[in-house]
Amino acid sequence: MEHSSIPQNCITIYTKCINFAAIKHRNQRRLDSDETPYINHPIGVAYILTEAGITDLEVLQAAILHDTVEDTDTSFEEIESLFGPTVRAIVQEVTDDKSLPKQERKRLQIEHAS
């Protein structure tokens, strides 16, 4: 059996991140016909990124956390205190400003997609 080369601390950090998001999104459901648990969405986004070859731990953490500030009581300060300033910056970059109209939020998402 081949052993993984992923350092234990990376697995711990990533699992902490998934657990945090799961707790924050615990009472939320997707608006699909099955009312899928919301946490499936950020995990799916992280999976898509890994399938595309993204291996940067902080980018994957931000993928998991990307809706916590938007859709839960999480603050950017909380993200930074638990996961560091780089993760906070990435999450902040992809978080919608809910004070803007939906069409403008979507336009800004496309503009900031890279």
From TrEMBL:
Signal peptide: none annotated. It comes from Anopheles gambiae. GO terms for molecular function: guanosine-3',5'-bis(diphosphate) 3'-diphosphatase activity. InterPro entries: MESH1. This is AGAP012646-PA. The lineage of its organism: Eukaryota, Metazoa, Ecdysozoa, Arthropoda, Hexapoda.
